Amino acid sequence: MSQPLKDLLRTSDLSASDIELLLGTASKFADKPLWAKKTLARKTVAIYMTKSSTRTRLASETAVAHLGGSPIFLRGDDLQIGRGETISDTAKIISGFCSALIVRTFAQSDVDELGKYATIPVINALTDDDHPTQLLADWLTIRENFGKDIKKRKFVYIGDGNNVANAWLIMGATMGAHIVVATPAGKWAPKSSVVDQANKIAKKSGGKIEVITDPKVAAQDASVIYTDVWMSMGDSEADRAEKTSALSSFAVTNDLMRLTTKDSIFMHCLPAHRGEEVAADVIDGPKSVVWRQAFHRRTTIQALLYHLTRGDLKGNK
Ligand code: CP
Ligand code: NVA
Predict the structure, then answer these.
(1) Superkingdom of this entry's organism (predicted)?
(2) Residues with catalytic annotation?
(3) Overall domain count for the chain
(4) What is the mean pLDDT of residues 224-250?
(5) Residue 176, domain member (yes or no)
């Protein structure tokens, strides 16, 4: 018997059947937030963040509370890690007090190391490279709008080739979707290693991956247009002018949305910068599903905690 999935360190850790299970459970938590209210009774979950957060922190703390547990929020330099304690020692200590660790930080390798040394589930709540919990919320929102039959649909991300774009590629590939990512060429395109990995996954799942540089070609007949901020947490301020200029033609406007299907939706993980990556009349307009997407941050993190602590996700290994 193979071991159950212990952590969610990367979007690619999840199999399609894990995702189906999580989305089903998250839907239940959307209707009845307290149906599993004893799951974490008298237990604690550490939430450690070295980057800012509005949604992920609120969603995580609320999810833990709805499962009957107590969240312990630890900000960046609250921990002795900032004064040189090792990640492995920290992981062992947190494992002695808590039932899970939710972590947001810069380097993916730090999250990987926490996962290696912690004996409790570790959940990646955003790194420079990935944002797996976001994609669960996104996919549930997509499911609510389009159901399971996505064969003829095109799911498009337009903008910076960042952590969210990476996760969009991998999640879409796992779900067998037709994924298009449009970014400027070069520095702001997704890493070729991620695109290669997405292509490999899509080959097995029946999905299709396209990484292009023309936002109009991408938007044509799209069911979803997704975008994210142009400057991510941790991006160098020295790049701002060059990056903003390279991305200016990738802004999601109503002109771009007019190229999409009649039933298309606009998605954004938030926070948004109206007038930069998205026009106000798009994000605040009738096609926008961003508030439902944000709502599902809680339902999906709750599902993740529920299943990871029970050990019933299979993973990809
Ligand atoms: N989408 C998202 O992760 O939001 P926060 O940065 O506010 O957590
Ligand atoms: N790409 C953004 C996502 C924020 C939720 C960042 O990393 O800052």
Answers:
(1) Bacteria
(2) 104, 131, 134, 228, 269, 297
(3) 2
(4) 98
(5) yes
